[in-house]
Amino acid sequence: MLRPILAGKNPLEIQKLWELMYRTTYYAGRMGITLAAISGVEMALWDIMGKTMGVPLYRLLGGRAHDKLRAYASLARYPNPAHVAQACTAMAEKGYTAIKLHEIDVAAVAAARKSVGSDIDLLLDVNCPWMCRKPLKWANNLSPSISIGMRNRLARRRLRWASGSTSGSQYPNRCW
Fold first, then answer.
1. What is the distance between the alpha carbons of residues 150 and 142, in angstroms, rounded to a whole number?
2. Could you give the angle at which helices 106-116 and 148-155 cross, rounded to 10 degrees?
3. With contact defined as beta carbons under 8 Å apart, do 134 and 147 qualify?
C-alpha cells in the first residue's frame, strides 16, 4: 500500500513523505493497521536520516533529555491469570522493576501482583477495546481510564498507572 507512494522519493524529506502517506491512504481509514504501517515507515525514514548524517537519532530529535531512563516490561494479554503470573515472574527475574499489563479483569491483575510481590510496580493499559456495558454497570466513570468499581478493585492491587478506555466513543458498544 505504501510502496507505490514512496518509490523514488527522497527518504530525507520525512515530514513531506509522512503527509503524503497520510493523505494518500485516506480510503483505508485513520486508525489501526494503516497508521501502524505509516509509523513503521516513519521510523525507518528517521533511521535512514540518522545513518546518512552519521548521527544518532536522539540528536536529530533535539538531543538527550535524560541521562537515565527506567525501562518496563510490556506484556501481551494472556488467556488466564496463571499465564499472567508466569509472565510477570519471568520479567521480574530478568530484572524489570515495573511491568505493564494489558489485562481487563481483576483476577489477572491480582495474579500479577501476587506473583511479583510489592516491590515491582504494575502498570495497567487497557488500550484494547472493552465492551463498555460491563465496566459501566460497575459505576459511573471516575476518570477517562477505568470505572469507579473497577478502579476501586484494582486499587487494592497497588497499581502505579492505568489508562485506556473511555465511554465517550462514537462506537456505542466499545470503549477506546
1. 10
2. 20
3. no
Q: Strands of 73-74's sheet, edge to edge? A: 73-74, 98-101, 121-125, 159-163
Q: pTM for this structure?
A: 0.57
Are 86 and 60 in contact, with CB atoms under 8 Å apart?
no
Measure the CA–CA gap between 147 and 153, rounded to whole angstroms: 10
SS3 state of residue 130: strand
Task: Indicate the residue type of 3.
Answer: R
Q: CB neighbours of 70 closer than 8 A, spacing ≥ 6?
A: 97, 98
- pLDDT, tens digit (0-9, with 9 covering 90-100), for 61-91: 899 888 988 899 999 999 999 999 999 999 9
Furthest-apart CA atoms within the chain: distance in Å: 56
Q: pLDDT tens, 9-31?
A: 999 999 999 999 999 998 887 77
